[in-house]
Design goal:
Elements: H1 2-10, E1 23-24, E2 27-28, E3 48-59, H2 60-67, H3 81-88, E4 92-109, E5 114-122, E6 127-135, E7 139-148, E8 153-160, E9 165-174, E10 179-186, E11 191-200, E12 206-213, E13 220-229, E14 235-244, E15 249-258, E16 265-275, E17 281-290, E18 295-305, H4 308-316, H5 321-337, H6 343-360
Parallel strand pairs: 4-5, 4-6, 5-7, 6-8, 7-9, 8-10, 9-11, 10-12, 11-13, 12-14, 13-15, 14-16, 15-17, 16-18
Antiparallel strand pairs: 1-2, 3-4
Helix pairs in contact: 1-3, 4-5
């Protein structure tokens, strides 16, 4: 089954286009390297998996068989060229069935390139906490498909640390009174493109989507958060923050779409960027597409440098200029950090922020 999946996907690659990314007049902000399919991984990836509670974990051929129609159903392999490249080179496929109160921790730690795929079925009335960490080589694709049952909840956290190119897709469908809270942290990689989608299908379903990223040097981090409101009384809050230094680039796209059939929905998003260098670049595109007027909605985006007043205040208390900026950066991320419900992800992100501050000698 795995071999057929790879072969079918390989035949799609040539006829598909690369994913759409942010464009402004005269410029496409994210340009993918050519001939990426030639860089795909060739060896299997064996992650470290820890579970607690009622979880059934399947891997490889067994996972594909157990997942059945759920595999590549939320994220289609023929949606774009990179999706097909991912499906043609999957090095790790995991299917998880979660019941009751449970935890799942997956750590992909390898110096080799990797294409990892995780499918999770969260049964009605269950509560699952998920952590995914990727520390991979020069080429990395990471896909996550989550099915959230009625009255179920998921707290999901991912920390991405690839060496070179990275493309991540994550998507969930949430049924009646279900909820999913996403947290995605990006701290390394030359070019990192991540898209997270949520379909609020059931009445009373909810999601929170949080992003944290910190490109430095000449790194390029591109994050897209998208939500589709279908059920009544659905709610989505997006809150993301990025710090950009040196000649790095930060891109953000947020989209909340309210279908005509969805009544009494709430849609909010806020994105803030802290610029530490005059050579750094940032672009944000928050959007609302509302087809039903019975909605409460707002969106905002802001970018700025370290406030001189704050820096002067800290320096007047005996801190050096570098120490003052470090403290401002840590404080800038803190409102988002307080929202993180997954302890392992929170500690990982704090450590990555500390490492970044040491690397850049802010």
């Amino acid at each position: 089954m795995m071999e057929k999946l790879r072969q079918d996907a390989s035949e799609l690659i040539e006829d598909l286009e690369m994913p759409e990314t942010i464009k402004t007049p005269g410029r496409r902000w994210t340009r993918f390297p050519e001939d990426l399919e030639k860089e795909t991984p060739k060896e299997e990836t064996t992650p470290e998996i820890q579970t607690d509670g009622e979880t059934e974990v399947y891997m490889g051929e067994e996972a594909l068989e157990a997942a059945g129609e759920k595999a590549f159903d939320l994220i289609k392999k023929d949606e774009n060229r990179l999706n097909a490249i991912h499906a043609s080179s999957v090095t790790s496929l995991i299917y998880v069935e979660a019941s009751g109160d449970s935890e799942l921790d997956i750590d992909y730690a390898t110096e080799r390139s990797a294409s990892t795929h995780l499918i999770i079925d969260v049964r009605p009335g269950s509560n699952l906490q998920v952590t995914e960490r990727t520390d991979c080589g020069e080429f990395n694709t990471s896909f996550t498909e989550i099915y959230v049952g009625e009255n179920a909840s998921v707290d999901y956290g991912a920390v991405e640390n690839p060496s070179g190119f990275s493309y991540s897709r994550r998507k969930a469908i949430v049924h009646r009174y279900g909820s999913i809270n996403w947290l995605n942290g990006i701290f390394s990689g030359d070019l990192n493109r991540t898209r997270i989608d949520t379909v609020l299908k059931g009445d009373g379903s909810e999601t929170e989507m949080t992003g944290v990223w910190y490109p430095t040097g000449e790194q390029h981090h591109d994050l897209s958060l998208q939500v589709r409101h279908i059920g009544d009384n659905t709610k989505c809050d997006m809150d993301s923050r990025s710090v950009v230094d040196d000649k790095a680039r930060s891109l953000y796209e947020g989209l909340q779409k309210v279908e005509r059939s969805a009544t009494d929905t709430s849609s909010f998003q806020d994105q803030e960027t802290l610029m530490l260098s005059q050579d750094a670049e940032s672009d944000a595109s928050p959007k609302l597409m509302i087809e039903n007027p019975d909605v409460e909605a707002s969106h905002a985006a802001a970018a700025g440098s370290v406030e001189k007043q704050k820096q002067h205040y800290l320096e007047s208390r005996g801190l050096t200029s570098e120490e003052a900026e470090k403290l401002v950066v840590k404080g800038f991320f803190e409102p988002v950090m307080e929202q993180i419900r997954v302890p392992r992800v929170k500690s990982s992100i704090r450590e990555k922020v500390r490492e970044k501050l040491q690397e850049t000698q802010v």
